[in-house]
Amino acid sequence: SEWSAAATLTVLPSSLSASLAFAPTSVLRGVESVLTAVATNGTAPYTYSYQWRWTGMTNWTAATFTTPETTYKWASNIEFRVRAVDSFSATSEWSSVAALTVVQPVVTVGFSPSTVTQSQSSVVSASVTNAIGAVSYQWQKKVGASWTSVTETNSSITDVWPSTVEYRVRSVDENGTMSEWASATLTVLPSAISASLSFTPST
Fold first, then answer.
1. Residue 3's pLDDT band (cuts 50, 70, 90)
2. Rounded CA gap, 142 and 147, in Å?
3. How far is CA 118 from the centre of its chain?
4. How far does Cα 186 stand from its chain's mean position?
5. Cα separations (Å) of 194 from 9, 188, 191, 197?
């Protein structure tokens, strides 16, 4: 027979796409979040490649994991994106960015009272929010231009300070997560000294 009429196959670009999400999208530092990728409009099985950056950065860094689901304790706010490759090597565009907010512990500190005279006591106390479980404290006292560690690990110190003094403190929770340092200053005023004079006898 004669050759048949030609038949043409039109191959359209792949419509493969990938999406990405954190669950939950906001966690305390030290708490896990699950990052999940989903590929659509392709042929399974899929492989995935990820890129990440800390929030505020412009450059992306390749991630070492390739699984569709990753559970991890991230240290600070982070963003990810993903692309998928299907069984026919079709490759998706990079997904929209998935962002995770990591809430850091915050410590506050203050003296009460914040101004005393010599020989009067004062209490310096610290408290922390966004920490997990049992919390200990690391104290330092400013000596000259340097900070010197203090052995106290509780949330407060009571003492009589002879002169103006500055302390700083940070918290450590049960996961080992540290807050930033916070400082407070106690102003110590000189004690009021009075004197009187009399003659005996007065005349």
1. confident
2. 4
3. 40
4. 29
5. 107, 18, 10, 10
